[in-house]
Amino acid sequence: TWHRTNMAEYDPLQSADGPDSWHARAWEPFFDKVSDKTVAADQINMSKVVCRQSDLVPTGLGVFAASALRKGEIVEWGLACIIPGLSVHAQDQFFAWCSHNRTHEAPVATVSGCGLYYNTLGDRSNCRCVPYHQERRFEVYALEDIPAGTELTFRYDSMNWREGMKEVREIVGELQAEHHKACP
Predict the structure, then answer these.
(1) Enclosing H/E stretch for 52
(2) Most buried of the four, 32, 86, 112, 122, by CB within 10 Å?
(3) Do the Cβ atoms of 50 and 63 come closer than 8 Å?
(4) Phi/psi at 128 (5° precision)
């Protein structure tokens, strides 16, 4: 059983990351927020997904819905681990783990669960990753109703400005939707 937060009480602008963060920009009002109590009891949960050969990337892995997911449903959550001394600019395998720093010194993270294996369709992706940078964790939510067996994708919000994402941009195009843009 998932414990849900009363959405009337949840305000993403009050997150530890702040009102100008990627967390606040990524949040959608239809997301069915998993409760802090549930996350505390099980900090890494990928029970609704499976990882196998991608349908989108022939040489890689992908993440798939283990059962049907409804729009706004929590898909997966997990933890992030900062990797010291790595620049996010030159590679495409890890996550920019900061809302405001786009320099080569910006924090870089890897994540638990299936997090590294979600491919992207850019603005056409069917899920959204909501980062909690200060808490070093993430949640993934369905942006639409998703049938069982469908490959799950989410936007790589830093792909427009990362050199290592050039090939990805050539395949899916630059992000146009608002929430990827630079935070003040």
Answers:
(1) strand 49-53
(2) 122
(3) yes
(4) -135, 135
